Amino acid sequence: MGNRGMEELIPLVNQLQDALSSVGHTCSLDLPQIAVVGGQSAGKSSVLENFVGRDFLPRGSGIVTRRPLILQLLSADAEYGEFLHCKEKKFTDFDEIQQEIEAETHRLTGSNKGISPVPIHLRIHSPHVLNLTLVDLPGITKVPVGDQPSDIEYQIRDMIMQFICKEHCLILAVTPANMDLANSDALKLAKDVDPQGLRTIGVITKLDLMDAGTDARVILENKLLPLRRGYIGVVNRSQKDIDGKKDIKAALLAEQKFFLSHPAYRHMADRMGTPYLQRVLNQQLTNHIRDTLPAVRSLLQDQLLALNKEAEEYRQFNPEDLARRTKTLLQLVQRLSVDFEKLIEGTGDDVETVSLSAGARINRIFHERFPYELIKMESDEKKLRREINYAIRNIHGVRTGLFTPNMAFEAIVKKQISRLKGPCFKFVDMVGQELTSTVYQCINKLSSFPKLRDETERIVTTEIRQQESRCRDQVLLLIDIQLAYVNTKHEDFIGFTNAQRTNNQNNQKTAPGSTGNQGVIPLSSLIVIRKGWLTISNIGIMKGGAKEYWFILTAESLCWYKDDEEKEKKYMLSLDNLQLRDVEKSFMSSKFIFSLFNTELRNVYKDYKSLDLACNSQEELESWKASLLQAGVYPERVTVDAEGNGSPEYFSDPQLERQVETIRSLVESYMSIIYKTIKDLMPKTIMHLMVNSVRHSNTHLNRCSA
């Protein structure tokens, strides 16, 4: 650039960044830097490797970058790399650099694809690079894999936001050309924090993989979604090239040839490609540092004054003065307690706007992550129906069961309740980890007093472990209590409420002195699967013609009423031996019709061989057919597994299917009560036994300090 002072700006900021990291500083100083943001497989790693001209970043499927990598490129005569966590070693073999990144990542995150916000600092000296500092962030993902937490998408988003929401951070938004720019996760995140596009630099990758006849010219000309700093296109190596160890220099020549020969890009070829991108980033970061330097200097001076003021308080300090030592100790412990209280309870002063506080993260565990784990249990209806099917058949044994066995309901319910132990224990672990990380965050402020810090850490983490153990015991007790007694008289239980309503209605009709046996009805007939209006369309004009009625479908019958007040019942049709078929829609009719018929060729309704029912829409028709399928009424010519295995939606015995549907409805009703109870009790239990206990552990600290 011709200005030696300007060229030294980037290395100067690098030294400042290293100094803050090496002393364990939380880096409240907003240093100028470039954060690389993009979805998985967007080509971020290839762009960075092209800058260096070497393969040095881990590769694979899923999330590969699981910790922020602060990559400092420095122009030098020799070529080597060095890490901040092992300063004494120079890595001349770039395969070793890759292995060290993987090892350092696993050290904090393990091998289960988890992530950590703690950055890895890598500095690469090379004659082939320009001075540049980039922060490579984990790729944005939607679906958790392996043992990743269910909210991995939000964790990655939070980590990215911690970097890009800072005013002094430039955003390198990497988007592949073969996806719609409007759906770019990188640009969406950038727009959230930089709505005017002042800090965002767009990079479009995979231009060579676009469909034939399409190009990204309008994007690269900054006409589609304009950014103040514009877009730059690059062409990276393909996966085949990487696997074949294609030389990066050869890839850069191929990239240059692509832009020069492509009709849509040749007029802007001098403003495309990896070398041009590197020059632009070097220039823009240098200018950005120059522009923000006064503000950084002012902030450093303010922090220096604050530190000098604090140091002044200790100049008169006599290490042998026991009273002064005790007072200082108590002040530090009290400050730790106050800091922890603020992080958990929240505070109106100095509100964090970059990331969630500990209390907010625990609240999210309470009301988002734990309920999500329960929903995952609820959603596997296929497995539930299969288990009910086997339970009923195993209870009947060689006999043919005429009635739905109560034992099947209780066995399935208890199995479902026992499965709650996993999500509940995971819940305890998540809160325990959050409390531990919060404690470490507070204890770091005691770094000037190593013995006090270590003793405080020991006391509080021991308290957390003890309370975790108590919490687990309490969870087991809560689940054992639910297993001890299945309360089918609960007011919210569908079997109880329906039976109670029916008994009340029948008791009103029973004459005085009668036994009241009319109130004893099969429980399965009480399970309402669906209600709605249908038109009986095959009644002749002489008998009144087509007419609309209010239908109620249960696991045993289909009955219809004059209207939805359900007072005047017109007919109740047993579902035994019924199947359904589609009826072709007539030219003059606007209705969608299906027909119920008896497989033994008996009359279905009065003197009618079939009952033709009409809906107002195709969607309504499909919904009724699905509901009838749940009740054991199958479409005509359905093939069924002779062994009764396979898909649980289909059974060779319609009566068994109705029994399964009855038990399934009862189990879902009862488990909804259990889920509601557990969702209410678990946060209260953890709050009482863990969170509040750790908050009050300052009494232990005070005893220690005394």
Strand content: 5-15%
Uncertain runs: 501-525, 638-651
Strand order of the largest sheet: 4-3-5-2-6-1-7-8-9
Shape: globular
CA-atom Rg in angstroms: 35 Å
Count the helices. How many?
Answer: 20
State the end-to-end distance: 62 Å
Helix fraction bin: 40-55%
Number of strands: 17
Task: Find the structural class using helix and strand composition.
Answer: alpha/beta
Main sheet specs: 9 strands, mixed
Average pLDDT, to the nearest integer? Answer: 80
Pfam families: Dynamin_M, Dynamin_N, GED, PH
GO biological process, one term: receptor internalization
Family: Belongs to the TRAFAC class dynamin-like GTPase superfamily. Dynamin/Fzo/YdjA family.
InterPro entries: Dynamin, Dynamin_GTPase, Dynamin_GTPase_CS, Dynamin_N, Dynamin_stalk, G_DYNAMIN_dom, GED, GED_dom
